[in-house]
Amino acid sequence: MAPTHPEQNDPMREQLLGYLLDALDAEERQHVEDELQRNPHLQREVELLHEALEPLRADEAEYEPPPRLAARTCQFVMEQRRRPHTIPLGGEMPLAPNRWSLADLTVAAGIFIAAAMLFFPAIQHSRTTARQAACQNNLRQLGVALTEYSQRNHQYFPPVPPQGNLAAAGVYAVQLLDNGLLDDPHQLLCPATEEAQSSEPFRVPTAAELQAATGRKLEQLRRRMGGSYGYSLGYMTDRGYQHVKNRSRSSYAIMADAPATHAHDMASQNHGGRGQNVLYEDGHVRHLVQCLTQSCNDHIFLNDQGQMAAGIHPDDAVIGHSSATPLLRTVGYQGAGR
Amino acid sequence: MKKAMEQDAGTAQLSPRPRLTDEQLLLNYRTSGDERTFALLVERYERELYSYLRRYLGDAVMAEDAFQQAFLQVHLKCDQFEEGRKFRPWLYTIATNQAIDAQRRNKRHKSVSLDRTGRNQKNDEIGSLLELMQSGDPGPVSQLESEERRQWVQQAIEALPDQLKSALNLVYYQGLKYREAADVLDIPVGTVKSRLHAAILKLNEAWYGSHPPGAE
Fold first, then answer.
1. Measured between CA atoms, how close is A198 to chain B, in angstroms?
2. What is the pTM assigned to this prediction?
């Protein structure tokens, strides 16, 4: 085997590689074939690339699937398909002949409306309470994952880098998932939000995907990756920007229902503007009707200078929405840190 | 026996039924919910998709799990499949996402696993050195058998950055077109081309680094 080292990363060589692997469209393929006929130098390039693929040929055999994989998969899917419905969907129920008169229907409708007026607020209230409780449960589980992360990382919670593609509060989700500390990304969605009820899949990008993304795609990833929760943006000291260390403080907010981007007081809209659930450093979760912590009147979404950015001292907790960055470009934070 | 022969003769007279495309099967399943149609689709991709996931995840159990989850997603999302689109890249997109999720779930266990090759290159070197010592070959590099060679390739691919590995798996091993792989990975076609080229380049450098041509 001759030592063939393709040295340049030029587009023609990539096309030739695609030609060898049959990865080109018909039009591209035709173009490469025309070029090959014209240019003997390219024919030599194809030979070199062919030799460059030689080592890979040692591992070309397909893996044998386990016995009855297809059959077991179908069985698994069909079981899942049947599970949620006790009455078959689309199946027609035998209808009894209609013996109801118009008067009966009017009376029944009246009773139904009266009952609905009586019970609807109660049903609505219990549904709201149930979703609020489910949201608190999500935050508690996220609290466990964050604590485990801090125990593995010298007591530091997942850091939000001050610059670069990863510089957004929602990066906490990427780090929890990439470290295997969260089983299901749907725990990042507050059950009261439309996103949690949508059939659209929710997926958190990997750190590598974020690093590779640019422009609008990067913006989209950063906006969605934190789910419906906000995360701590760290704080500034004389030594510059600092990540949050787990000191198990009962008054330091580390996560919360994400703040609204438009409301003047930043109150979260996850629960229809009726307040927000907040996870504190010691792992307890509390529902706050306003955006201020009860013990020290600290605004959880704004720092002591009234900005959604890193706190201005170690006890100034600020929860930013998924795409919020710790350092504002227009504000003199860089100066404050030096 | 006679009956069977008659049946055969009867079948031979019928014109061959055109094979439905993957897209037609999926759309049929979407409208009819027919389990046999779905089963046909799973059977078509049993070997190919399992092989892809097995290579991607490097673990048979995880690959099987991801395979089942991928087809569960096919069932759940078949309403979102746009007519005119190709099924194969769509399936690979779903399967790749399942594989990424499986990797994340397994990360905790992976760090303590003793029987699986880690990403750490140092460990790889130690592993291969141990194997070579056990084999007792005096000049192992020049006497690599095909199995050892296969293992070398697998380890070298495992050591590639994830982005390069994905492009290599989809285009080289699974035979996807550049355009299809770009669709699966949600990146520009040019990026797939350069990643594949970079992967081949790196593997080649590694190969000739450890197997100098003069030694063969």
1. 12
2. 0.54
